[in-house]
Amino acid sequence: MAFYQDQKIKKAKKVILLESDSHHIAMYRRMFQNAAFEVDLARTREEMLEELREIRNGEAPKPDLVLMDFVLADGYGTEALRAIKKSHFTRDIPVFAVTNFQNPDMEREMKKSGIFPDKYMVKTCHTPAELVNEMENYLEQRPAGPDRPKTNLA
Questions:
Q1: For FRET with 114, which of 58, 103, 104, 120 sits at 20 to 30 Å CA-CA?
Q2: To the nearest whole number, what is the mean pLDDT of the chain?
Q3: C-alpha closest to that of 28 among 69, 57, 63
Q4: What is the pTM of this model?
């Protein structure tokens, strides 16, 4: 009994996963749930943009992190990244791009415009366990502050 009383109860972190590949969805969902992440899924760019509208309107809570692929069934995830980083309601949400799509011209353009994910990882270079570890470390080290409001009413 004392063992459980001494442990801190950890609140699940919410992650929005923007991914269209069903195999990756199943793998990531299993890994994130095992690591006590709550997972919301957006399979298309449009679903992600709808989720962002709900966050801006106060109809959905902000996630702790967005994990996105840039290659989706309905186009590129960069439009969703741009929508997240341009809005004052969502720009503080960390975005991890985990993709096999590498385009140096696109990366240069994103950096030049100031619209770049907080973390950019190539799927084939990182195991799902490494990704979960990166996410946990990033969120543990990221303090809440004046630039990171806790509500949607900022």
A1: 58
A2: 83
A3: 69
A4: 0.81
